[in-house]
Amino acid sequence: MTSESRIGVMGHHYRRILFFLLVLLTTLGAMSLLSVAFQDGGTRPHELVMLGLYAILTLWISASFWTATIGFAMLVTGRDHYAIANADTRAAGAAPSGPFKTALVMPVYNEDPVRVFAGLRAMWQSLAETGQQDGFEVFVVSDTRDPDIWVEEELLWRRWAKEMGHPARVFYRNRVENTSRKSGNIADFCRRWGGRYRYMIVLDADSIMAGETLVEMVARMERNPKVALIQVPPVPVNRSSLFSRMLQFAGSLYGRMFTAGLSYWQLGTSNFWGHNAIIRVKPFADHCGLPKLPGREPFGGEILSHDFVEAALLRRAGWRVWLAYDLGGSYEEIPPTLIDYAKRDRRWCQGNLQHSRLVFARGFKPLSRIHFAMGVMSYMASPLWLIFLVVTGVAAYFQSLVEPVYFFGNNILPVWPETYTVEMTTVLWVTLTMLFLPKILALVLLAAKPALSRQFGGLVRATLSVLTESLFSVLLAPVLMLFQSKFVLAILLRQNVGWPAQQRGDHQTGFAEAFGTHLSHTLIAVVVGFLSYRYVPSFFWWFTPVLAGLALSIPVSMITSRVWLGQLARRVGIFLTPEESAQPRVLQLLEQNLAHAGTPLCTTATGGDLWYRAVVDPCAYALHASMLPDETPNRRRRHYLEGLIFQLQDEGLGSLKPNEKRALVSHRDGLFELHTLLWAAAQPPSAGQIAGAAASSGAIHQ
Amino acid sequence: MDSGIAMVGQSGAGVAAADRSPAAWAPVAERVALYLRALGIEDALHRERLLMRIQQRWEARVIVEDPVEAGIEEAYALLDAWLCTELDITGEVDALFTARAAVLSGAVPNWSARFAGVAGESIAAQVRAAGVQPEPEPAPLDMEPSTINLCCHDLGRRITGALRVLVGHESAAAPPRTEQPQ
Fold this sequence. Notes:
A: alpha/beta; 6% strand; B: disordered N terminus
């Protein structure tokens, strides 16, 4: 078989047929068991509801189950004829020729600049170690609104650019208006500088990639001119809390099976996950300009989760999108606590639900529609499970009211009611198997691959880790179900989510935060537990795993956020990942860069906030002014800025809000006016005295 | 920007706006000297030379609301004038801002001597080398919004329109809503 036919569409349709057949048959099998139990005495309306919900949910978990199982088989056998790693289709298309550049594009929005630049430097150092850095440039595309963070980004950029020397390879721009958020940020980059690059590797503020991976991504794109995007699955790393180490372990061990399985059936219609992916710039610019959806938010307006849509648009235009599951060296950092994880879900939930409008939009490939539907289901599954549980509980209650009748008419022999315990237990076991078998398969994978097993701390420790992780999964799942159900409800009630920056660093959940967040979960557990125990005791015992997770949500949320517990687990080899066993070079470099972050440029006499320095410190001022667009504000804007300067004079720095501070330093003219004004004040701006004094006591000039 | 924000007497120097006497210059000079030091001009001789030139410019100003602010502005204007001459970049605003950022970041050694006129050799090459462009030359690509035709968008309204036509309430289906998928 030639490489062309391998990457082509025709040759691998059987994979999708097999996968969807397995999913469908599993779902039908589970449904038939349940429907047998329901058909006694005719199907009642609530049973129909349960059957419908169970069908959707089984479809969802069986797709996940078969993806993991197939991925397991692929990893054990090590065979994948159609992987993008082996493909070379240069003869098939007009391969672009000549020298080219690849941009490492880092979109940021009020992120920690020290971490952002430390990560970028680590990637660059790793690239330099491959000796192939000449084909790359770094581009920080900032949408940061916080004036202090903005200035810090500039100072850190300047220091790095100065160290890199000529020719310039690291660039920075801060957008005047952050229209359309991240997708608008990337689109702005393409519109202004897209012609400079053949490829861009899109990163996230917490993502990091090894130099060899970056080079290999470019090589694979070069070998396959019809491929527009290759996604490299990011492995979660670098967090220390128990919660995040559990996720890191699960992501690293089970994640590799899932991504291999996804690649098996998605092939050239894979998805884009928003970062850690290489994109061919020209087709991206040609086809991935995002329209606004008709209607108002949350389902209309700007497309929030742009990545799925961009992948679908590329496929619609005939370009291929691949998942390079075999390629390592791709990492990301994850939320450190359950509450942070839920907050991130809140942001993602709206974007994914918005995709429900795109499932049936015209022109998309069937698999792209499935991606949209799966995105929707990743959040809709929670409220559906919740409804399923509630309906099951109500049905059990009504069932308990029915008095069994043993004697009909003149029959002297009793007619025993037919029981469906076997069928119902089988349904339960089928569901549990689909949820937990991938974890057991992961252990089998480790048993089959001793070298990999050692990276996870050995089979015994890995087994303990899987057991502990499964226990916590059971406890955390109901809490996440309630969180996500609440988010979905809020979105359906058209409450917008905004765009808050993430809290990424390790921090721990205190009692007040846990109590405030999980009190409602605990109360639900108490009330539902009491009602079910009082009125449907047989249901209560089946329900205890769900109730336990909710009842213990406060202590579990606090305990799992503890860094010392995560570190203790690491010391005893629990939740160990390959990245912890032998830290990859690029992560070592990141650690070194963070340890030696130093101070940005212009840390001279003035002190104070960075924003204040950009106004008064001649070094920071000159640098900041040099990075502003050369445009004169209009009359209305000038009056607004003058008003802010009067406010600054009369009420001091402390009276200004962040957006007002940003406005004051967004124009060269206004900035110069402010600079000279502060230097002409009664007290000269030295050693941060004015910043402190003005902030506390008010007027600047008196 | 209009300098209406520069309020009379805000420096606290207590000097009448139109006063150009040496006595009026003294408090201004004190602050301008401090400013020059903040610019990175450590050498007292350099500062003294520059102060003389700034004083000349300050005295030549026609309208001044605040003398200290005028002094600071003149110090900056002198720096800009020198950079334009040194680099031959008159009128090139972005180049001037880049050069200014380069010298004030401390990346060009001994620039203050040249600025103060006590060093003969041009430092244009060093200033250019120390300048860093935050953005590369533009290389634009067109990126227009793609069309996404939603299925069933406005379906209820379209069905209602068709039904109205059927029952004869309207001669034709209602015109489409102005808000359409792009």
